[in-house]
């Protein structure tokens, strides 16, 4: 991956969401993207979650395509699922400028809606800010190859605002393990995103 002077970059055409440019590359801001935050936090040990051109990714919670557009700069194909109409309009515009983004307007809780458009993928990246985030991940596991990677960005306050974020993290981790996943790593996304954890798993 491209890092210059400690800044994570990607090499596509700029002007997607007003991102800064640096030495001809797009700056991937850790305050705007949880993947970039993860990268900055784990930068000495990033091998497992690195992106490369061999990867096909199912991205759940694409929103208006900010992070999706950076993924698309690195990987071969991004299936980008979003259910809200307004961000979907932006995502479609982003997809028109990048040939390897497939925008899918659907509910990630109902993967049957998009199963006809899917192939199996190497990675699922999930950032849906909803209750039942571990359940949504489990529902989408049929799309993930054996030994494939799940990166779950867990917004603990969306699961239950009354519960301590650490308890939400432990409960969600348990649910992921009960779904047949092996948790290989986890971290909090402080100082970039408060009360957000990242849970990294492999499909057994
Ligand atoms: N990942 C985005 C980024 O980094 O640019 C930000 C995602 S935002 C925190 C969460 C998004 O998930 C929202 O756009 C929301 O509409 C979408 N979302 C929430 N639940 C969803 C579901 N069940 N199916 C599809 N999209 C969902």
What is the molecular shape?
Answer: globular
| Largest sheet strand order | 7-6-5-8-9-11-10
Ions, cofactors and other ligands present here are:
S-adenosylmethionine
Question: What's the helix-strand series?
Answer: EEEEHEHEHEEHEHHEE
Structural class: alpha/beta
CATH class bucket: Alpha Beta
CATH architecture heading: 3-Layer(aba) Sandwich
The CATH H-level superfamily is Vaccinia Virus protein VP39
N-to-C terminal Cα separation, in Å?
27 Å
Helix content: 25-40%
State the major sheet. 7 strands, mixed
**Runs with pLDDT <50, length 5+?**
none
Q: Helical region count?
A: 6
Mean pLDDT equals 96
Output the CATH topology. Answer: Rossmann fold
Number of structurally distinct domains: 1
Query: How many strand segments?
Result: 11
Proportion of beta-strand residues: 25-35%
Radius of gyration: 16 Å
């Amino acid at each position: 991956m491209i890092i210059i002077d400690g800044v994570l970059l990607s090499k596509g055409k700029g002007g997607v969401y007003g991102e800064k440019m640096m030495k001809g590359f797009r700056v991937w801001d850790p305050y705007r993207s949880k993947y970039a935050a993860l990268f900055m936090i784990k930068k000495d040990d990033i091998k497992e979650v690195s992106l490369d051109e061999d990867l096909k990714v199912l991205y759940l919670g694409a929103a208006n395509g900010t992070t999706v557009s950076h993924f698309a700069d690195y990987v071969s194909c991004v299936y980008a699922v979003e259910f809200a109409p307004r961000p979907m309009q932006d995502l479609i515009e982003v997809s028109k400028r990048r040939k390897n983004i497939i925008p899918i307007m659907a509910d990630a809780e109902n993967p049957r809606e998009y199963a006809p458009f899917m192939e199996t993928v190497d990675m699922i990246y999930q950032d849906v800010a909803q209750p039942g985030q571990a359940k949504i991940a489990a529902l989408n596991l049929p799309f993930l190859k054996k030994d494939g990677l799940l990166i779950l960005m867990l917004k603990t306050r969306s699961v239950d605002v009354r519960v301590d974020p650490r308890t939400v993290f432990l409960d969600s981790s348990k649910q992921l393990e009960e779904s047949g996943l092996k948790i290989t790593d986890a971290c909090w996304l402080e100082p970039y995103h408060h009360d957000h954890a990242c849970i990294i798993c492999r499909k057994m």
